[in-house]
Amino acid sequence: MRALQHPDVEDLRLATVLSALADPVRLRIVAELARSGGIVCGQFDVPVSMSTLSHHLKVLREAGVLRVTPHGSYRKHELRREEMERRFPGVLDSITRVIEAP
Fold first, then answer.
1. Residue 72: how many CB atoms within 10 A of its CB?
2. What is the mean pLDDT of residues 32-46?
3. Nearest alpha carbon to residue 17 among 94, 96, 84
């Protein structure tokens, strides 16, 4: 399994991050990741096909919101909380607090 590229923290742009988070499915993915700490690709609970899920995960990864790490034959997805906090203090925490609220 090939390693995926992730943008350097210094290259993250707030407009790109916010654009990636503007989609309801991607917000749901971020909420799941915030609750769980990390999810294997096939275990997301979203109402889209696997190919559409892959697209949403790619958008979030390329925006710098999540990190994907290979673990044998599967990939684990995790929020880049620490890096996002260094680059954009409070943004990811504010967003996850709002989407996790009942």
1. 6
2. 89
3. 84
Task: Classify 88 in phi/psi space as left (phi over 0), alpha (psi -120 to 50) or beta.
Answer: beta
Q: Tell me the H-state helices in 1-102.
A: 14-20, 24-36, 50-63, 81-87, 91-100
Tell me the C-alpha to C-alpha distance, in Å, between residue 21 and each of 1, 73, 74, 97: 27, 28, 24, 14
Closest listed residue to residue 61, CA positions, set 3, 1, 7, 8 = 7
User: What's the maximum distance between 2 C-alpha atoms anywhere in the chain?
Assistant: 38
- What's the predicted TM-score (pTM) here? 0.91
Closest of 22, 71, 18, 14 to residue 42, by C-alpha: 71
pLDDT in tens, 85-97: 999 999 999 998 8
Q: Which amino acid is at 96?
A: T
* Residue 84: Cβ-neighbour burial (10 angstroms; 0-12, 13-18, 19+): buried
CA distance linking residue 35 with residue 78, whole number of Å: 11
